[in-house]
Amino acid sequence: MYISTSKDNSGQMVKTGKYGKVKVEAFRNKYRLRFSYLKKRHSLTIGDISDESWKIACAKAQEINSDILIGRFDETLAKYSPERAKALELIEQQNKVNLKQVWENYKKLKDKIVQPSTKKHCWSQTDRCLASLKESLYDLDKAPQMLAALLENYAAGTLRPVLADLNAAVNLALQMKQIEDNPYQHLKLPKKIKKPIECYDDNEIKAILEAFYEDTYCSKFSSAKHSYYYYYISTLVLTFARPEEIIALTWNDIKLHISNRPLPLTHPTRLAIALNKLCRFVFFSIIYPQ
Q: What is the pLDDT of residues 19-44, one digit of tens each?
C-alpha cells in the first residue's frame, strides 16, 4: 500500500493512497476511488474528507483490489456502495415486468386470433382474478403467494383455466425474452376430494317414508301436504331412478301385470329397471287407494 499527502483543490493537505490497482484520492472535498477494470475506468465516491471517510476508502480500496485479483469484481459497484445498490434496485424495479403487464401484452398480441367467446368467458375471468389481487402479488417471483391469495376467494376448478391463460401469457413473454423464467408452470392446484356416497339404511328409509305418509313435519301453512308426495318418494326409493325420470312417467309407460317390463329411463347409457313386486304395489296403491 502506498500513502502520501497532497493538496486538494482548496489547498488543504489531505491523505491519498493506492492499493494495488485502486487509487484513493481527494476530489471536490470528498474521497473517491479510481481504478480500471478490463480497460474501463471506474470511480466511486466515498464521502466528505475526514478520518472516518479515509478509513472507509482504504477498506473499500483493499476489497476492490482483492476482488479484481481473484476475478469476482462487481462491475455494477453495488457490492461496494449501498447508495449505488439502492439506485440500481430502483432502476431494476422500474424496468421489471410484472404479471399484470405480461397479461395485458398477451391480450393485445392475441386479440385478433382469439375467439370472442374465449375473451368473454375466459379472459374476463382472468381479469377478475387479477383485479382481486394486491399489486405486490403481480411480482413474478411471488407466484406461490399469488395462487394462495386466489384460492382464498376462488375454487380450484375456477382457477384452472385462469392459470392456463396466465401460463400462456408468461410463456409468450419468455419467448420474446422479456423475462427469463416461467414460475407459474410449476404451480399445482389442490385436487378435489370426492366425498364418499352415503346411502340411507333400511330404518332411515322407513322413517322418511313414514314422515311423508303421516305429514309428520308438514307445516300447517303448507299449500300441499307431504303425504301428497309419498308415492313419488316411494318410487324413487324402490327404483333408484332419477327424479326427472319418475316425473316424466305416464301410465302408458307402466305395465303392472308384466314383471319384466322395465321403466323407460331418460339417460341412454343407463340400464332400465324392471318393476318388482314392491313397485307394482306402489302403483296399485295409487290406482286403488285404501
A: 888 888 888 888 888 888 888 888 88
Strand partners for 48: 30
Q: Per the structure, how many domains does the chain have?
A: 3
94 belongs to a structural domain: no
Instruction: Indicate whether 103 and 76 sit together in one domain.
Output: no
Say which DSSP state 181 is in: -
Residue 109 lies in a domain: yes
Tell me, what DSSP letter sits at residue 197? P
CA 232 – CA 234 distance, rounded (Å): 5
Range of the domain at 212: 202-287
Q: Give the residue from 95, 210, 190 showing the smallest Cα distance to 144.
A: 190
**Domain match, 208 and 282 both:** yes
Residue 35 and residue 64 in contact, taking contact as beta carbons nearer than 8 Å: yes
Q: What count of residues does the chain have?
A: 290
Distance of CA 91 to the CA centre of its chain: 27
CA 57, 62, 68, 71 torsion: positive or negative?
A: negative
Kindly state the cell numbers that stand for 233.
318418494
- For 229-274, how does the pLDDT look when each residue is reduced to its tens digit (9 = 90+)? 988 888 888 877 888 888 887 777 766 554 454 455 444 444 444 4
Global pTM value:
0.43
Cα distances (Å, whole numbers) of residue 192 to 152, 155, 162, 166:
15, 10, 17, 21
Say if CB 258 and CB 251 are below 8 A apart. Answer: no
DSSP lists the bridge partners of residue 17 as: 3, 24
Residue 57: which of 49, 170, 220, 267 has the closest Cα? Answer: 49
Measured CA distances, 34 to 18, 46, 211 (Å)? 9, 11, 95
d(CA 168, CA 106) in angstroms, rounded, equals 8
